[in-house]
Amino acid sequence: MEGKVRWVGLCNASVEEMEKLQSVAHITSLQPPYSLIRRGVETAQLPWCQKENVGVIVYSPMASGLLTGKMTRERISALPKTDWRTRNDQFKEPKLSENLKLVDRLRTVGTQHGRSPGEVAIAWTLRNPAVTGAIVGARNPKQVDGIIGAMDFRLTTSEIEEID
Q1: Is the pTM of this model over 0.70?
Q2: Which are the contacts of 43, defined by CB distance < 8 A and separation ≥ 6?
Q3: What is the pLDDT of residue 107?
Q4: Comparing C-alpha atoms, which of 149, 91, 151 is closest to residue 116?
Q5: pLDDT by residue (tens digit) across 2-11?
Q6: From CA 57, how far away is CA 141, in angstroms rounded?
């Protein structure tokens, strides 16, 4: 090695891929999708990263807007046909009804603390000890104001159970 690469970060890698690369160079971080409705990394990647001391910066903790509390059936049905969410199962029945019920639980927990459903969704991902950070998307400063509090908001064990 010539020292040209100082840190290795991966996106959407499996444990098998990380183990292969780890034998060549230490992995610094993994960037997987992770949210209440996309939990696949909990079984393999997150435990592996925690064991190997690999940072995890999750993306899409609010599930592309679905868990913000701003997505309604009406808003989803008004999305342009070119929007990829119109073809995503999480935004269509029967999953849509389940997801909107989940948002109601997020809203209930959040209301007790003056927090938005989006903040609760982000805090839920950050409660996992393997997660070191979360990438959240915002299109304007008002959206940032609605989620910025997640960085210092911690859910109780009973709130996590209520959400789960």
Answers
A1: yes
A2: none
A3: 96
A4: 149
A5: 777 788 899 9
A6: 22
- Report the side by side order of strands in the sheet with 133-135: 8-11, 27-31, 55-59, 133-135
- Give the separation between CA 160 and CA 54, rounded to whole angstroms: 24
CA distance 160 to 156: 6
Residue 133 has a CB neighbour count (10 Å cut-off) of 15
Tell me: the pLDDT tens digits for 7-55?
889 999 999 999 999 988 899 999 999 999 999 999 999 999 999 999 9
Query: What are the distances in angstroms from CA 72 to CA 25, 91, 163?
Result: 45, 10, 19
- Check residue 57 and give its pLDDT: 97
- SS3 for the chain is CCCCCCCEEEECCCHHHHHHHHCCCCEEEEECECECCECHHHCCHHHHHHHHCCEEEEECCCCCCCCCCCCCHHHHHCCCCCCHHHHCHHHCCCHHHHHHHHHHHHHHHHHCCCCCHHHHHHHHHHCCCCCCEEECCCCCHHHHHCCHHHHHCCCCHHHHHHHC
